[in-house]
Amino acid sequence: MAALPPCAASPPAPESARSAAGAMVLAVLALTALRLLWLAAKPLDLYPDEAQYWLWSRHLAFGYFSKPPLIAWLIALTTAIFGNGEFAVRVSAPLLHAIAAFFIYGIGLRLYDRRVGVWSALAYASLPGVSVSAFLMSTDAILLPCWAGALYAFVRAREEGGKKWWVWTGIGIGAGLLAKYAMVYFFLSAFALVLIFRSERRHLKGLLAASGIAFLILLPNLWWNWRHSFASVGAVEANAALGGSLFHPLAFLRFFGSQFGVFGPLFFAVLVFLLVRPRALAEPRSRLLAAFILPALLIILIESLLSRAHANWAAPAYVAATVLVVARLIESGRPGLIRLSIVFHLVAVALIWGGAEALPAFGVSLPARYDPLHRLKGWRTLGERVGAVLAQHKGYGLLADDRETLAALVYYVHPHPLDAVGWNPTRQIKSEWDLTNDVSRYPGRNFLVVSMHHLAGQMRPSFASLTPLGHLVIPVDPGFARRYSLYLAQDFKGYLRRR
């Protein structure tokens, strides 16, 4: 395929190419509709992080302990429209990924041609990591369309007469920063490209202008952090968990291996092959895409070696990576591998989301360690059982010694105990509850305590009495259950230690 000038708009496409673009739009919309139908028909329990985001959406702010505010704002919008069920919390996730796919189409179209754009959009929509993210409400679901939109605007801004697109680049970056602080990798990528390569330096002024717009958008969140002792910064540092022993080779290998699942085995193998061959990235379009892949991917790889990294942390890199891999496979005459990968991705995700529930019908029990959905199970049951106990003790508050348990209880206990509190005798700020609603604000109050970590001995001196009520065992999967102890705690006296 003849190479186009860097970032030039593709020539008018023949009717068949336009038809392919229309088919791509219909395919992405059909896949999105199927995901929405699945969310409506199979409302799996909210994961505790999702429940926490829902709680944040009950009191809107410019920031929260561990995340910027956009996810709470979006959940507030969707739950105002659809109610407070699991579907309402998650409904925007598949829609946002569809938006990201359309931006990726635009990136492929502007850098290469319509064919690359079409297959890039289809490939992105099918990626295993995207398919999983489309069924859960997470900050990644918001970050990725912001990243893709900012990258599309960045590509357009570099074209002749594209100065107005720097405004949209800044808006995309700013929105991404309000979604997840990982958007800062976009700055590293853009400035590395513009400063390292002489041919790109003419875009420095436009990039600085875009950065100023992004800063203005982020400013309310910075103000919130300043008022709360930069709690979000501390949360990011804690999540990185740097410290202790210097090298964690097994964590590195686990993270590296997980990327074959996130990006797809063939796509990730091709990506690695391209990234370790500098000549493959010498062409300007490949160089631009690599600039938006390498910083995020390398930083997270290093972090996984020094500490740990979750499989999704490098997700922004796969926006540009999808276009790069698709373009290279098409250029090398292997478009069939793209189609094969898309089919494999969709089948694999169907097995992930449907296989675990289908297996019992054939008499097969999947152990929890092999069930990818086990972390979404059991929370509703826990909430119903705790709610029944709480209803028998009018006037008691709810207290838990585990953040995830507390988030799930606030969502699944009815009426929602929005004033629930966490146990935090160290007084260190480790969660939103520690920041905004610590138990120390309620002297003299009685609580139903739901304990996961067996802290009764630590709690007892802080109450006039601590009466055991028994235990809860919440089955999740064969061979796995969550276990809790319940107590009635009367007259909180403040955090006191056993003498």
Supply database-style keywords:
499 residues, disordered N terminus, 22 helices, 5-stranded mixed sheet, alpha/beta, 5 strands, 2 domains
What do these coordinates show?
The chain has about 500 residues and is an alpha/beta fold. It folds into two domains: about 15-355, no CATH class; about 380-490. Helices cover about 60% and strands about 10% of the residues. It contains 22 helices and five strands. It has helices at about 15-40, 50-55, 70-80, 85-90, 90-110, 115-125, 130-135, 140-155, 165-180, 185-195, 205-225, 230-240, 250-260, 265-275, 285-290, 295-305, 315-330, 335-360, 380-390, 405-410, 430-435, 455-460; strands at about 395-400, 420, 445-450, 465-475, 480-490. It has a five-stranded mixed sheet with strand order 2-1-3-5-4. The longest helix is centred in the N-terminal third of the chain and has 27 residues, at about 15-40. The relative contact order is 0.10. The model is unreliable at about 1-10 (pLDDT under 50).
Q: Quaternary arrangement of the chains shown?
A: single chain
Number of domains: 2
Q: What is the residue-mean pLDDT, rounded to a whole number?
A: 90
Please state the CA-atom Rg, rounded to the nearest Å: 25 Å
